[in-house]
Fold this protein.
Amino acid sequence: MEESTTTSLIDRYSLFGRVFSESPVGMGLLSAVDGTYVDANTTLADLLGYTRDELRGQPFTSVGTDLQLDTGMLLHALRQNRQLADIPISITRRDGQRRFCVLSLHLEEIEGHEYFFLIVQDITPHEAARLELEHLENRFRLFYKSVPLPLLVIDQESGRIMDVNPAATTLYGYRRDEFLRLRLADLLPAGFSAAAPLNALDGGQAALTCHRLKDGRMIDALVSSYSFMLDERSVTLSIIQDVTEQRAVQAALEASEERLRLIADMTADAIWDRDLSTNQVTWSAGLQTQFGYESAQVSTSESWRELVHPDDRAAVVASIDEALESVAGYWTSEYRFRRADGNYAAVLDNAHIVRDETGRPTRFIGSMVDITEQLKLADVAANAALEERQRLAHTLHDSVSQSLYTISLLAEAARRRALAGEQEIVTEYVGRLGELTVQTLRQMRLLLYDLRPGVLEQEGLSGALRHRLEAVEHRAGIRARLIDHTLAPIPPRLQREIFWIAQEALNNSLRHASATTVTVSLSSEGEDIVLEVEDNGQGFDPAQMDEGGGLAAIRRRVGDLHGEMSVCSRAEKGTVLSVRVPV
């Protein structure tokens, strides 16, 4: 009865029926008595997954909606307000698909009967967009709070800080509420414009600047900024990276590299660096100064290899390959290397092998030293040592051997005289044997002392003289003492000269004076050093001094030192040698 009346009513008002049927928004009429569908347009029927005929007579609450409709309460509410709008509902279509909708209800009276007129708007696409936006906002909020780099949101017009993340509060030391009362200029050094960095950094470009922390410390900040619109305002998102420590390390590294470059340029050695992945070699200036090549002329390991002497090349290359293939960290070799003028230099090459974490060699860094002159000096030293050995052999032959031969002759003569009963002559021969034996023993002790390593460099002049007296004179039965009254240090070179002079004087006394006591005195007199060597030996006439003897050699050495020498000696009264040399 109600349905036919309503239907005839919609049909009667053809304009309303056309709007009702063709509306893109879902519309329906419900009985205010039991809440069943009286009619629904095609849009609502399609939304629910039914036809219009299938919906008629169906309860509203049983066809796809989760809204519990109490018709009595709803009728009372609508009689009071005539309309209930924007009620969010969820509709499950007949095929199980879920849709999000907004419901509006009106109370209408038609031909004396009350009906609920409902309008259902499908907002599923909008709800999906809203959820996506909410999801994106949540993700951004999570990113903004958890990103480890400080983030500042800055109003471009006023320069005021609008928002910060927790990393910014940790770095700068401000609380978030303190930050929001600051401007960008408050973080910059005094007199620094805040507009400049905002303009310069737009588009994600990074620039280095200084930022001030809450405690007043300054940091080096690498800032990247992006401009965008937020709530119809131009804002800048600045990403801050504290590079203070990295910059300090970089500065220290650059300073170290500069020092190494200066050292490489100043040293005479040819320092080289070989990249094992490319076999490219770079050289210091020593390559040019020592061997005459520009760095570009020996820029590969192959070009270096061609300059190694052909007789040394195979062994040197093999030693390098062996070192690189092992776990060694160091390599050294001595070989001949061709200079730019064609001559070969003897070189000592030392290198460190740099390896990665797997032990694979990556770089080969070393220095090549020209040791040609050192080898020549070594040859000279070897020849000098040979000459010294020959001198000692000559001394043994001329002094010790002759003395021993004389001793053997005297011993044989004494034996014969003893057999002949010539007791007085035997006694004389035995006395002469004793004297020759003592003299020979002294000469042997002197030779042994000459063979010992020098102690002058280790113990100084005074220590070396004391060592000489103990090693030679004391063991030869001579009472010897050293008196040192020097006040200022003596230069090392002058120490060597004075020590040589003292040794020559002591040697002369030991060999010729037959002394039983000897005294060596050192003293400082103004700017001069005075050396005196005094013995109680048999003495001699200084006027008869041999120009080729030991005293003549001492006089020449003292003259080279621009010093003065005097000798005071008398027969059986001993000898005093005095030398004065300027410091």
Q: What stands out?
A: The radius of gyration is 57 Å. Residues 510 and 520 are 13 Å apart (CA to CA). Confidence is low (pLDDT under 50) at residues 1-6, 196-201.
